[in-house]
Amino acid sequence: QPFNPGIFLIHAVSNIICSVVFGDRFDYEDKKFLTLIDLLEENNKLQNSIQPQLYNFFPTVMEYLPGPHQKLIKNIEMVDQFTLEIIEEHRKTLDPTCPRDFVDAFLNKIEQEKGNGHSEFTVETLTRSTLDLFLAGTGTTSVTLRHGLLILHKYPEIV
Q1: What are the φ/ψ torsions at residue 121 (nearest 5 degrees)?
Q2: What is the pLDDT of residue 118?
Q3: What is the DSSP string of 64-113?
Q4: CA pair distance 97, 105, nearest whole angstrom
Q5: Which PANTHER family match (predicted)?
């Protein structure tokens, strides 16, 4: 039977990114994990409209105008909230001598740079970096894998 492996690939890639960033994988039926993926997928679709692109050039004006960019901003805030909850859990169980993942390493660097007023290592930077890893990794990697499967299907003699 034909099927679309896109959703399975997105879930797998997102879970691998979660493993690297958060040090833990999620169950594929986990509501928080599925919500995270839905938000990221919706943002990928919303970014193709003109309003988010205009928002990059005219953020002050666009904040007052309705459009898909408003939903994109709300989705990013929800992903930030998801990330902040995990960061807070990591702070409570942090062992500076044994970082478990990207978040722990970043929290260690925040602590090292505490006296530096010009440091870019902040919790806000950590949440943005995490968002960037998900946005850059999930879509591109899953699409690349999908195309690879399509090529393998079309040319079975390669295998």
Answers
A1: -90, 95
A2: 85
A3: TS-SHHHHHHHHHHHHHHHHHHHHHHHHHT--TTS--SHHHHHHHHHHHT
A4: 10
A5: CYTOCHROME P450 2E1 (PTHR24300:SF356), CYTOCHROME P450 508A4-RELATED (PTHR24300)
pTM of the shown model = 0.81
| Residue pLDDT, tens place only, 77-121 | 999 999 999 999 999 999 999 999 999 999 999 999 888 888 899
The count of domains in the chain is 1
Residue carrying the six token digits 């943002």 = 43
Q: Give how far Cα 155 sits from Cα of 75, 137, 143, 158, Å.
A: 39, 27, 18, 6
State phi, psi for 64 to the nearest 5 degrees. -95, -5
Task: Please give the Cα distance from 45 to 23 (Å, whole number).
Answer: 28
CA separation for the pair 54, 64 (Å, rounded): 13
| Rounded Cα gap, residues 153 and 79, in angstroms | 35
Return the exposure string of 133-151: e unless at least 16 CB atoms fall within 10 Å of the residue's CB, then b. Answer: ebbebbbebbeebbeeeee
d(CA 124, CA 159): 45
Domain that holds residue 98: 5-158
